[in-house]
Amino acid sequence: MPALALLSAVFVVAFEQLVQWKYGLAGIVGLLLLTVGLKAKSPAVSSAGAVVLALLMTRPTL
């Protein structure tokens, strides 16, 4: 069981670093809002995080 927890923690940290590298601070804020909203069972907060991430992913590249 500890190996599963360690693997899960490594995956989360790697995913956060990938989001920060690709989308910057706004990506981390969106991911944080989405995570906090899901943990707190708050549809408004999780929706705000999802919208931020969706806007970052669909913006046109220059």
Features:
mainly alpha; 62 residues; 0% strand; single chain
Offer a quick outline of the entry.
With 62 residues, the chain is mainly alpha-helical. It has helices at residues 2-40, 43-58. Helix 1 packs across helix 2 (43-58).
Protein topology:
Layout: H1 2-40, H2 43-58
Task: Describe the structure in your own words.
The protein has 62 residues and is mostly helical. Helices cover 89% and strands 0% of the residues. It has helices at residues 2-40, 43-58. The N and C termini lie far apart (46 Å).
- Structural class by sheet pairing and helices: mainly alpha
Annotation field: number of helices: 2
Q: Calculate the mean pLDDT score and round it.
A: 85
Classify the beta-strand content into a percent band: under 5%
H/E series? HH
Radius of gyration: 13 Å
Principal-axis shape equals flat
Q: In which range does the helix fraction lie? A: over 70%
Overall number of strands: 0
Biggest sheet: strands, sense, closure? none
Q: Would you identify the regions where 5 or more consecutive residues have pLDDT less than 50?
A: none
- Counting copies of identical and different chains, the oligomeric state is single chain
- Terminal CA distance reads 46 Å
